[in-house]
Design a protein that fits this description.
This protein is an alpha+beta fold. The chain has 14 helices and seven strands. The protein is 62% helix and 14% strand. The longest helix is centred in the middle third of the chain and has 30 residues.
Length: 352
């Protein structure tokens, strides 16, 4: 038993080491405000501090200085392989590693993921596996307590036939964006979503309830991502890699998100009669997605003011065809000239 505990401890430390390298290389991708927000919540996670406790600059300051010093030491190093039962595995070999960890290798079922996010930023995590769902031609992994993670910690990620839903990270992501909105006293879709839950009485309970309500729609989005991937084809990912770290990459990711949601998430939201989830959906939409879909945002505001879903329903019916045609146009343009600027201009002319 002690040997197993030691092996698991070393495995977790290796995953966290790789997280540190990824953070060191990509922390500069964020604006200062977003960076400080993410580091504050990373500190909360590492120190196991509950969400009821307000963090101050003094709490985080020394830890942040120490962490940035660690990053200086590891930034140029290579990601370590993962050692499982005495054998080393490439840290990006998700299928093989999960085949081992999903089967109670260390007297508990675990799930692991290494993937590439925006700007080709690597993400790593290892956590308890709460549920594994085999559906159609994809697998959904739902994780619980996380033992190693990077500062970004995306709540969900689709990779080919695999979908990873991180329950703990979902709670933290929700808390980050809602806490920021609440502290700044804003009236926006996020604070409107919050009003359906009793955050003033017990923030932890309200957060848990909200995360549980939204997890189904997070899954819907990621399933939509898988289905959108089949429509877009492998060439889309090649194009993303070629245009990494450009405005065009951010636009392409927004197009895929819109396409995914037009297939799955928006129809489910509009049929579900769940206003809190609809507010949360629009509040969680990235700036680029809003920029490319001004009519959709206008239709949301119309619904909020009138309780009339008709404009949203009309646009939802048109969305899949629209974004699929935009994606086809982008692909054709890239095949002729794989440059970012003409693609950015083309996409900007195709707003919904």
């Amino acid at each position: 038993m002690d040997i197993q505990k030691n092996e698991l401890k070393q495995l977790i430390e290796t995953v966290q080491y790789n997280c540190h390298i990824a953070d060191a290389r990509h922390a500069g991708d964020y604006t200062l405000c977003v960076y400080l927000l993410k580091m504050r919540e990373m500190y909360r996670w590492e120190q196991s501090i509950d969400f009821k406790t307000m963090l101050t600059t003094d709490d985080v300051g020394d830890w942040l200085t120490e962490r940035e010093g660690l990053w200086d030491d590891v930034e140029e190093l290579q990601y370590k392989p993962l050692s499982i039962k005495g054998k080393n595995y490439d840290p990006f070999d998700n299928d093989l590693i999960n085949t081992l960890l999903n089967e109670e290798m260390y007297n508990k079922k675990l799930v692991y993921n290494a993937g590439l996010g925006i700007r080709c930023r690597p993400h790593f995590f290892i956590a308890d596996l709460e549920e594994k769902i085999e559906q159609d031609n994809y697998t959904v992994y739902i994780s619980g307590e996380e033992y190693a993670r990077d500062m970004a910690a995306p709540a969900s990620m689709a990779q080919e036939h695999r979908i990873f839903i991180r329950r703990e990270s979902l709670r933290r992501v929700i808390w980050e964006i809602l806490d920021d909105a609440r502290v700044n006293g804003l009236d926006n879709p996020l604070t409107r979503a919050m009003s359906y839950y009793d955050f003033d009485t017990d923030a932890e309970v309200a957060l848990n309830n909200m995360a549980e309500a939204e997890i189904d729609f997070v899954i819907q989005h990621e399933v939509g991502e898988v289905k959108a991937g089949y429509i877009l084809g492998e060439g889309w990912n090649d194009m993303l890699s070629s245009l990494a770290r450009t405005q065009a990459e951010i636009m392409l990711r927004a197009i895929r998100d819109h396409l995914a949601d037009s297939i799955m998430t928006l129809p489910a939201l509009l049929d579900g009669n769940k206003p809190a989830s609809l507010h949360f959906y629009f509040g969680n939409m990235t700036a680029m997605r809003k920029h490319l879909a001004p009519a959709l945002m206008k239709a949301y505001e119309y619904w909020y003011e009138t309780d009339d879903l008709s404009q949203l329903q009309k646009l939802a019916k048109q969305s899949q065809s629209h974004w699929q045609k935009v994606a086809e146009g982008v692909t054709a343009l890239f095949d002729k000239s794989p440059e970012a600027e003409p693609i950015e201009t083309f996409i900007s002319s195709k707003k919904q």
